[in-house]
Write a structure and sequence with these properties.
- The chain has about 575 residues and is an alpha+beta fold.
- The chain is about 45% helix and about 10% strand.
- It contains 21 helices and 16 strands.
- Strands 7, 8, 9, 10, 11 and 12 form a 6-stranded antiparallel beta sheet that branches. A 4-stranded mixed beta sheet has the order 2-1-3-4, with helices on both faces.
- Strand 11 and strand 12 form a beta hairpin.
């Protein structure tokens, strides 16, 4: 059943009409995969209470008559979600005609919504004029002040916060619903590598096995559900998200590397390897689309509890839950990086080949001439790509840059880096989440410098600084972006993993593993090096037959009279030449 609300796009005309008609705005932020968004739209079959809100004729009539209703898709407009989300999806937010928040929440039942609409309308009649007259100047930049970047302290604080929240019985964080939190476990793996404390590895492996074998994992078709509603990982919320898979695959791969180095780790490594293989199987069999010369992964698959509780044969007889076939640049780029990582650790060159095909599609469809990245691409009935309007957001830029660097396409990443430096760089350091927009509406006038998107860009810049020639200033800009959160990270506690990992890398030189020879000669060396875990490493293959590579080889003084040969370097200091595969 369709909703009866006359939803409008987030655009200038909606705000102008709200002002002209003297009405508040009712904004709903939803997502195509969001179960409770669907419940608000059309109800839940067979449920006596959750009968739908926006498909209720009485409620819809009130909204249409007394409010300007605006619907925003979180996946298409993360910039709006970042400023207005009220703690989850759906977000229900009442705004003044200039975009100030009057009141907000998440899911409301039909009874709650009836009452809320009357209360908001009454409040608006009594206070609307005052709210508009006293509206603050929103055209500002979020303040930030740089501090000292103590990477060891940042990592220690984050790891200890994770340890305090760790569930020793079931793994994971907390004692209620549990989310994957991939970067938290990456932080523990780094702590294990640095200190040789086995407990950090054990906590991570316990969690990864639980997430990969209990109810949060689809043991029939493969793939992780979005989160567990119970502390023992047994009852999931049934959406499947591309982004979650892209973040989980690398931490599973890194745990496999570290387990293989333990005398008693082989069985657990094999368990995790089976989960990775199964998850990639789900991705390639269900979410992958390969047509008209384009290759990409869908963004999500809907929740459908009844479907996912069926056996494989029973599922085959039913229509599968809805798949969002839109191409999302950030999540596909994250998956490119994840596939390269998993391919190297599990020796699956076919996964690396797939990653390159997806990256080629991103470059063709999402990377614009000015270096900006288009957020998403839909495809019409004829299969023609239809670009979204949002371009140049920080998350998209950093993810695609990182994917290009992983694929050995550093020069192709240069225009994307330059766009970020030109259009997203903030005064005083760091990066805004989106380019400046003179026509920005509501809270979009406030330019944010989000901690985790800045960490992702810092990571990309740190890697680019070592892979690009003429990369002066990139590492310094990365450290400046991180320094702006040198105090702010503390409020994230056990969620600060993404920031802590990059801050640690920014504080030291990477290990650089350089192999000289033809592609056929260097491949075995790179494969062998990829079997070993290292939290901050650059792999580089240089072919003396390539003039550009030869220039760099000579500039760095690498002898190349006997090929293939490998060198392990830290900064400008390199070890003795290595001629045998597997010797590091």
């Amino acid at each position: 059943m369709k909703t009866l609300v006359n939803w409008r796009e987030w655009d200038e005309s909606a705000f102008l009409d709200a002002r002209a008609q003297g009405k508040p705005i009712l904004m709903g932020i939803s997502a195509v995969w969001c179960h409770w968004c669907h419940v608000m739209d059309r109800g839940e079959a067979g449920h006596p209470v959750h009968t739908g809100v926006y498909n209720n004729p009485e409620i819809a009539a009130l909204i249409n008559a007394r409010f300007i209703p605006i619907r925003v898709d979180n996946d298409l407009r993360p910039d709006i979600n970042a400023r207005y989300n009220q703690g989850g999806w759906p977000t229900t937010c009442f705004l003044t005609p200039d975009g100030q928040v009057i009141y907000g929440g998440t899911y409301f039942s039909p009874g709650q919504m009836r009452s809320l609409l009357a209360q908001i309308e009454q409040y608006w009649r009594a206070n609307g004029g005052k709210l508009m007259a006293e509206a603050p100047d929103l055209d500002v930049s979020e303040p930030a002040q740089a501090g000292a970047l103590d990477a060891e302290q940042i990592l220690s604080d984050t790891v200890n916060a994770i340890a305090r929240g760790f569930d020793t019985k079931y793994g994971g964080l907390g004692d209620s619903q549990k989310f994957p939190m991939a970067e938290a476990w990456e932080a523990l793996l780094l702590a294990h590598h640095q200190t040789d404390e086995r407990k950090w590895l054990d906590m991570t492996v316990q969690t990864l096995i639980a997430m990969g074998t209990r109810g949060m994992y689809d043991n029939t078709a493969g793939g992780w559900f979005r989160y567990s509603t119970t502390p023992d990982w047994s009852v999931p919320h049934f959406e499947k998200m591309l982004e979650d898979h892209a973040r989980l695959l690398p931490v599973y791969a890194h745990a496999i590397q570290l387990l293989r180095a333990q005398p008693d780790g082989a069985a657990q490594a094999e368990t995790l390897a089976k989960v990775v293989t199964s998850a990639v199987g789900y991705l390639t069999e269900t979410l992958l689309r390969d047509e008209a010369g384009f290759t990409w992964f869908a963004g999500s698959q809907d929740a459908d509890e009844a479907y996912y509780l069926l056996s494989r044969d029973e599922r085959a007889a039913r229509e599968a839950p809805f798949i969002d076939w839109r191409l999302y640049a950030e999540w596909n780029a994250l998956m490119v990086t994840a596939l390269f990582t998993a391919a190297a650790v599990l020796d699956r060159p076919d996964w690396a080949t797939l990653a390159r095909r997806v990256l080629a599609t991103l470059e063709q469809l999402c990377v614009n001439a000015d270096g900006s990245v288009t957020r998403s691409i839909a495809f019409d009935a004829a299969g023609a790509p239809q670009p979204a309007t949002l371009r140049g957001s920080l998350g998209d830029q950093s993810a695609v840059i990182r994917a290009m660097l992983e694929a050995g396409r550093a020069e192709a990443a240069r225009p994307l880096i330059e766009f970020a430096r030109r259009a997203l760089a903030a005064e005083g350091g760091g990066f805004h989440d989106a380019p400046a927009d003179p026509g920005a509406l509501g809270l979009l006038k406030v330019r944010l410098r989000p901690i985790f998107e800045n960490a992702a860009m810092a990571e990309a810049l740190l890697r680019a600084a070592h892979l690009l020639t003429d990369a002066a200033g990139l590492a310094e800009e990365a450290r400046a972006a991180l320094a702006l959160q040198a105090e702010g990270y503390k409020r994230y506690r056990d969620h600060a993993g993404p920031y802590a990992l990059v801050a640690w890398r920014a504080s030291r030189e990477p290990e650089e593993y350089v192999v000289l020879g033809s592609p056929e000669q260097t491949a075995p060396f790179l494969r062998a090096a990829s079997q070993r875990y290292h939290p901050w490493r650059i792999l580089r293959a240089l072919d003396p037959a390539n003039p550009k590579d030869l220039t760099l080889i000579n500039a760095r003084g690498f002898p190349h009279d006997r090929l293939p040969v490998a060198f392990v370097c830290l900064g400008t200091v390199c070890g003795a030449p290595v001629f045998e595969v597997g010797v590091v």
